[in-house]
């Protein structure tokens, strides 16, 4: 039973690992009873698609999905790191409670390092220029091969993403700053380059919307009462009517009268906070009016921390498992059998194609993965998955601000790191699984 879980975890790790990074491999997921086929390399899509009856897998899955729902990035990093930690924990044979304590302790060390002002993992942002923000957006977008975007298209979408973000920042600074929200709506049949940002409040998005039919200014009508034709909202009064009158059709006639008036007034957007009678909706839509009923909204929340007590040997073994897991995540960026190098000065990362031979390794003349370090001198490099002496990465001293070509969201990454360790610890702490089989 235990080895069955381990096999499933290993399979899940390999599956997600090969979907990681800018050269990720796409996955096609379909279940054995038919149904829709999902193609993606994005963690949120893949994890939604691979439901498992194994409670441990479900736990990891929902933990990562929760991270992605809040940060929209670094889901695969979290998942792969978590699964590597679990696999390493199994292999090093330490007591689980020691593993858990050391993992917590090392996570606190990592987080402390990352939060330092001069930490080398951070890039100073120049807010007079949107270039860094666009680079960040582009790093995320260009790592999604399913989007099949051309260079100009991913550039355009990256700029729009930044523009949309900037529009969420309030102009006046109140006591507590709350960012607005960006909603992305996909419309079939249009060029990616025609995508645009519209500031304002999105209430609902009707299907088959054609932007060409919208002219501005737009005449809008909003009702807060029900237009369903029911009589529930007229209060306690009495209604008198002639015998033989069909109330329903009388009400419908009135509603259609309203519809005619709306058309006469040139209204293009017809909104109602409650229900609209289907006949009235049909009438308005046939005449080119966008109709939206039952206007509403939604929300979300979540959070956790550390202690220690073990022998030095245990500590070192656990620390090695932790570090090796992190390295495994970095080597997961390469999918063509190539190798990963680290420079032992600044700790930046290079991937080399598999056809590079030992002789060619006299320094790498290409920039590192993030583009900040231009080349890696001989003797200052090491294979990532080999042993090398521990060191503290030296800061890069350059006159000009660093120009990274690939940027990750810092907050998303830091959170993903925490989620990975905490989820792994949670799984390590599981003693019994009690399941309702009904
Ligand atoms: Zn780099």
TrEMBL record:
<dbReference type="InterPro" id="IPR027409">
    <property type="entry name" value="GroEL-like_apical_dom_sf"/>
</dbReference>
<dbReference type="InterPro" id="IPR028790">
    <property type="entry name" value="MKKS"/>
</dbReference>
<protein>
    <recommendedName>
        <fullName>McKusick-Kaufman syndrome</fullName>
    </recommendedName>
</protein>
<dbReference type="InterPro" id="IPR002423">
    <property type="entry name" value="Cpn60/GroEL/TCP-1"/>
</dbReference>
<dbReference type="Pfam" id="PF00118">
    <property type="entry name" value="Cpn60_TCP1"/>
</dbReference>
<dbReference type="InterPro" id="IPR027413">
    <property type="entry name" value="GROEL-like_equatorial_sf"/>
</dbReference>
<dbReference type="InterPro" id="IPR027410">
    <property type="entry name" value="TCP-1-like_intermed_sf"/>
</dbReference>
